[in-house]
Amino acid sequence: MKSLTDKLKSNPIIYVTRDIERAMSIDPDTEGYFIISNNNDFAKQSSVNKKNILLIKEKEILSTAELLKHTDTKEFIKKFTNPSILVFKNTAQIEKICEENKWNLLNPPSKISNKIEEKISQVEIFKSLNEFFLNYKIEKCKDIKWNKEKFILQFNYSHTGSGTVLIDSQEKLDTIKKQFPEREARISDFVEGPIFTNNNALSGNDLIIGNISYQITGIKYFTDKPFSTIGNDWGLVNKLLTQVDIENFKNIVRSVSEKLKELGWKGLFGVDIIMDQKTKKMYLIEVNARQPASTTFESILQNKVKYDGINIFEAHLAGLLNIDTSTEKLIPISNGSQIIKRIIHNNDWSPQITKIINDLKKNNLDVIGYNNKNIGTELLRIQSNQSVMTDHNRLSDIGKKILHIICPNIAFLSNEAQKVIDAYLNLPIKNNFISVPYFNNARQKIRGGLKVFTGKGNPKEIIEEISIIAQKNKINLDKFNQEQTKQLLVDNNIGIDCSGLAYYILNAELKAKTNKSLQSVIKFPTIKNIFRKLIAKLRIVQNVNVLTFAQDENSHSILKKNIKPGDFIVMINAGIKQDRDHIIVITKTNCEYNTPDSTNNLSIKKISYVHSFAWNKDGKYNHGVREGEIEIINENAGLLDQLWTEQCKTNQENETYIRATQAKTLEIRRLNALDEKN
């Protein structure tokens, strides 16, 4: 951008930042652009042969304000005539330091940015945009009531989700009310769905709308906070959003920008928008009046694209310097992602961190390490030219590889198998997502017929059949809520039994791992008649049951210490009358080192599973596909001596555990076709 480079030559900018990567969106050797930061490992690597970078050497990492006060910084700035100071996020303290030293601070006033970002004050600013917000109200915590519906509670200030709480019970609300009775909070409707974000820049009346990215939020092992932002994926957007969705997103950005113009805002601002997975409507949930953290990597990705335009950080500088951008085009990007590992436990900065960084780099990933120590702060920022996500809340193969490197103790099913589970857990029927009901073959006594009416239908078949039933009975599914939709399936005997669910999951896993189908390897040793055996093979799903999976010709028993995703637990001759069989599929295992500094000798600590089941407490309609976990509390004991948790109930209150205790045979098994020896 020639007008920007020309301006910098006569009006130099000095970017002072705690973390140097915030300032690395343009070439550090650009004439008139300078950086002052801490002397950490990443900064030293980034500043090799760079004349425009000053690194401050101190024992501890300095904040931006501390860097500005440092003697070396002041001496460096003295070299310039009328320089401008730029920081990542402005504060009143930074403004005071700049004023005392008679430095020109480019960032907009902190009073304005705080007013825009704070959850309660922003309501007044954007009052005319209420159509874009979820329903909300402002109340003191002591006055908030629980109406048996989930809602989001936010205090006035929060960052990356730290001040956002999902209230899903009276108990959780009571805890908040007891701790902060007089504190005001903003409470909003709770919706589920993907969050999208983008970085935009204002220069006078000119608005440059940045590339939209999927916001990665709350993934376990990267963070322990469900609403914590941990990255961005630009490649997933076109998969999840239609062109109409993208235009709706941009319309919200334009409306927000008009309000910001009234406040005199210039430079970067970010918006976060959630799409309700039921209605597909978009809602504005956050406005960030500052340089968003994703700016640097978006700019780096843009710099790699052969396109005549500017990156988003250049648009930021242009806005702050009042340069006309009306004829400028932003460089588009359609791939790339970054994901952040936050510090969860005090021992996260462990002796293995150097090896972890090296292993990530060996997989063509860029890694920025931080010298942070506080829980919740960034430990690693991992960047890829490809997507780390394959769907909402689902890691891609690259994402799983990253997770396996930073947490080698976690193992998952393949993405293909996980998609099957997700489809049964969140079956999309018009505007609703439901878990597929449990189908009890023993009670229905149905033989033959369509798979969907025998507890063996796949998700597509179930959706098609319920649509036909609705059409025949002149039922408008668009007007049904989640509860009514599930009742319709149950009343028409449509669901999935435990072995049917296991079949589809294990078939997907087998195809992903060996390129074979379950149909090609499954055997029916108890069927002797050749014609019956042929029928069983042709109608494979209908004829597979728990005992089929448990046959030695199809699977073999394994020890608890060797369990892995894709294995299953069978309960043979269970139930009060010991006439019921059941199967649950292992979806994830979590191990821990036996000693803190060990890099070997892992032990299983947690087993996650999925199954289709009905508890007595479920009543007529609340059963179906669900997940649970088994925490290993005694490594030397059997499965029944561990802690089983499902639907927040453990062991004697957990009916799945009770079913396991009733079984004559309870064992962990693995498909012979999935055994690594085969």
TrEMBL record:
It comes from the Bacteria. It holds the Pfam family ATP-grasp_3. Coiled coil: none annotated. The keyword ATP-binding applies. PROSITE patterns: ATP_GRASP. GO terms for molecular function: ATP binding; metal ion binding. InterPro entries: ATP-grasp (IPR011761), ATP-grasp_PylC-type (IPR003806). Residues 110-321 form the ATP-grasp domain. Keywords: ATP-binding, Nucleotide-binding. The keyword Lipoprotein does not apply. This is ATP-grasp domain-containing protein. It comes from Candidatus Magasanikbacteria bacterium RIFCSPHIGHO2_01_FULL_33_34.
